[in-house]
Structures are given as structure tokens and as C-alpha cells.
Amino acid sequence: MTSISAFAPACSAHDVVRVYGHGDAEVRALDGISVEFERGRFSAIMGPSGSGKSTLMHALAGLDGVDAGRVVLHGGAGIGTEIEISTASDAVLTGLRRDRIGFVFQAFNLLPVLTACDNILLPMRLAGTRPAPQWFDEVVGRLGLTDRLDHLPHEMSGGQQQRVAVARALLPQPDVIFADEPTGNLDSQAGAEVLALLRSSVRETGQTVVMVTHDAVAASYSDRVVLLADGRLAGEIADPTADSVLDAMRGLGAVGAVAR
Description:
Blueprint lengths: L8 E12 L6 E12 L3 E5 L6 H8 L7 E6 L9 E2 L5 H10 L1 E5 L10 H11 L6 H10 L15 H13 L5 E5 L7 H18 L3 E4 L3 H4 L4 E6 L2 E7 L3 H10 L9
Parallel strand pairs: 3-8, 3-9, 6-7, 7-8
Antiparallel strand pairs: 1-2, 1-4, 4-5, 9-10
């Protein structure tokens, strides 16, 4: 098992294989990969196009199955029991995605007919729960959304919409937040603001964030970068900078990793 810190794992993959297609069209998107992501840390997953980074994140989040190996959402004091995601039933996975796993996607995924407040609260309302008022006020205030709660998505900028998506993910205090290219639809300033908010959620509240990105600057906000190539682990960078990430990506022959 690969690890560069003493932090307890939040989620992990063990000898995971994911294959698409058959025969000459077969693609091994994940080829026996083993890696863990530590609790209370901000980790980024990077690699060339087709390296398996999105497939790995989808497997860790229970959005996609695996053909071999194990995917585990780890438990611990106060954060639920350990679950083997790779063998969990659809009902269990639905519960995990509702209660213990948060998501922030490139496309925001806000419901256009709901206000910012209702979009933020929707997952918890569907689960039949509600946040503590103090925690709601803290999250909304930290994200600068206090005066936007009554706005519909089309009345907000892209950066504000992504802040709503971050608030929606943070509010249930999940074990892990998975962020898939969360700044891909934002300009550089709005993207930097969202990344800083994810960074502060890790630093200030101990949230765990796992982010897929192609952007070296975005990756530099993380504590650790996991590098993939051809569905395998290709290295790691601790305390990354944009330059160290670019150098590593050039070593992998990735032309898509660019600093904004």
C-alpha cells in the first residue's frame, strides 16, 4: 500500500482493475492499482488523458464498479463504519452517497428551479435530516453566500454557483468530498476562490477532499498529488507546487497539464 503520511486512510483502493470493452477493443482503465487517501487531507489525482484518474475517483466514490480488487471507505471514531464499496449493494451505495460521500462536479449540478438555499439543503432534506443552524450559518458565511441564498442559479455567476455546490457537499459533513475538475468551468479568479475554499475546509474543519484535475495550479492547492499513467500508480508529489507538478507531468508525457 502506497502512503507518504501517517494519517489514517479515509478511502483506499487495493489491486483494483477496471476493464472496458472486449478483445481488441479492451481498455484496462485501472490495472491493479493500490493507493490510499488520508483523512483530513487534500489530495489531487493527475495523469495524462486516459490514465484512469476519473475512473479511479468514480470507483472510490461508488459511482462505478470494479472488475477485481477492493475499494474501501474507512471508518473511525465518530465517522461511521468501514464499508467495502466494491461489493456493496445499490441500496448501501445510495446511503453512502447521501450520508458519507460528498460531490463537487465541473458542471455544478444545481437544480435551476431551486434557490441557492434549497439547492444547498436538498441532499439533507432528501435524507430526512437538517443541519445545525450554527453549522449552516458557518458554511454559508465562509463561502460568501449569505446574501445569495434566495437567488436562483441563473441569477448567480459560475463561481457563485460552484460555491453553492461546495456548500451542498460540506453541509452534511461527509467522510470524503470528491471533486471532479471543480474549476473546469470557471475563470482563473473564480477557480482560485473555490480551491481556496476547499483548502480551508481541510485546514479548518478536517474535511477530506480528493480532487481530479488536469491543472497544475489547481493541484498546487493540495497536500499531495497522486500521479497515474496507463491505469497504474506512476508516482506521488508531497507539498506540490505548480512547477513540481508540471515537471512531473512532463515526465509522464502529459501535454494537457498547464498552469493557468
